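FAQ: What does a multi-protein file look like?

Like this. Sequence, then tokens, then the next protein.
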Amino acid sequence: MTDNSNTKLQERINELEKKVEQSTHQLEKLSSKLLVAESQRSSFLSNILNEINNPLTSILGLTNNIKRMVYSNPELVHKQANLVFEQAFELDYKMKNIFAAAAIEAGSVEIKAGKIEVIGMLHEIIQDLHFKSKRKTLTIQKVQEIDGEFYFLTDPNLLRAIILNLVGNAIEFSPQGASIKINLQIDDEYIVFTIVDQGDGISEKDQKLIFSRFKQLDEGVTKSHQGTGLGLSIVKEYTELLGGTLQLNSSEGSGSTFVLTLPCIADHSDTFEEVSFSDEELF
């Protein structure tokens, strides 16, 4: 074999060694990411079990108490029944988020267009979450550009899930006696929800993590906030599916502002299916 051939062979061997080294490095990085992902999923599943078991155990205990009660004390029965509703709502809320996350993970979310009355929907969501805001004596202030009804062409179920999670998140992370402000702007092309809370705020570093499906900033046995940690990841995915944008403005110690913008088509001349909402004053 000539010196020239030996040189070319050595060059090829060197190239192969370099490629093997690069591939090994990439595999090590991938393996590390998989280990982190597996750890996050394991922590997530453990948290999910607790978040389901806790309200379920409470429901079973409360209903058992009601069964044993003397019905001559309707006030106590009513109080226990309210507690059952609250725990059942929490469980339903968490289970819907779990199913939504599973559908997103599987890529099986389908957009089903329909028209929903936006202002009534917002009132209904705040009424559903009233027991949570009442525990903290929170004030919810709403500002909107129009009165009456406004019908919005979108996927009603996805929109409701987005707003429910954003408002629920604001309530969960607000301190006692705080104020939450919800601003609703509507025109012929877009609808914009702005939700402002007075919570602890989120650092710039952590803002990249809160939309992760399997990651919570507040984890472990010492966690101070309830929830599966799925809400904001679902909000982000659903917003993108609906062709909208979600902006977060926050810093540590200054609260958080979420701005949701969705494309909107309004046509007040159509006939819509009647939706019943509570007339109770919410604000």
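And here is the next protein:
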Amino acid sequence: MLFLPIRVSAITNTDSSYIVMETTTNRILEGSNLNKQYLVASTAKIMTAITAIENYKLDEEIKITKADTLEVGSKVYLKENEVLTRRDLLYALMLRSANDAASALSGHNSKEFIQQMNDMAKKIGMKNSVFANASGLDEREYNLSTSYDMALLSSYAAKNATFVAISSAHQYTCKSKDSNYSWHNKHKLVTSDNEFLWGKTGFTKKSRRILVSNYIKDNKNLIIVTINDGNDWNHHRNLAKDNSKYNFVTIFKKGVYDTKRDVTYYLYIPNDIVIPIKTKEKESISMNFKLFKEYAILEVFLGNKLILKQNIDVYNKETFDIDLVIDIFK
């Protein structure tokens, strides 16, 4: 049975919503109408992409069907019976928002694939979302979500290296037996500003403009989602740069840590762990490590609220030079 939304709103976006979310903790930095359902148009393709990446082999070849070629709206004009890899189709999906590629990736919106999309939504914690097709088209059925849920999805996808490599590309070329393709990324901030790593556009007459962006600068890693915003490009720039209420604090530098406990391994943190906190919150931050045989869990609390839970890899002490090791309790 498909994952159904808690409530269903009108099938036309008549007001607006936005959110800025930090990706390490998924903390909401600001926003409006966060949990109201809207049509999300082609930003649903973020879910299509991560579903395909996590469930299928990307180098598998897919034959384009007539049904794929007949999809309406934005497409790259794939030809019936030509063969492309799933990876090629993902580039068409994310760079050009190709509805024919969405159809091919999903088996022309097969029940199995749509179920996988909704299962993924449940896994991520998207409680007010339902996906009925892989493209975001809303002539016959509807993909409903919220700015909060779409930020959760984007934060999840931003941690997948394959997804980021595909969606952040400025250009991609490929060929089938009969065709040569060259696709340019249509997200204008991604191609014009190095601080915007990847993003996804969306538009239908019913949904109006939807825009998702992943902004990274120094130790900030933000997801920005706007729904029905006619000035979305400029709004994303301004939202990305205005986080004056928060300090982005590095609670752990990347490196190898000795717990000084009665264990035979070190903790390995591959990247800085950064959290957004307000000035008055700094004294309320506390951390706890739970040590297991093959991994550890870092928990970070703001007062009594758990704001970050992250698995940490562990390695035998023989793996690292002792001079490289940091005392975690120093």
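Q: Is there any per-entry metadata?
A: Some entries carry free-text notes. For the entry above: Residues 1-9 have pLDDT under 50 and may be disordered.
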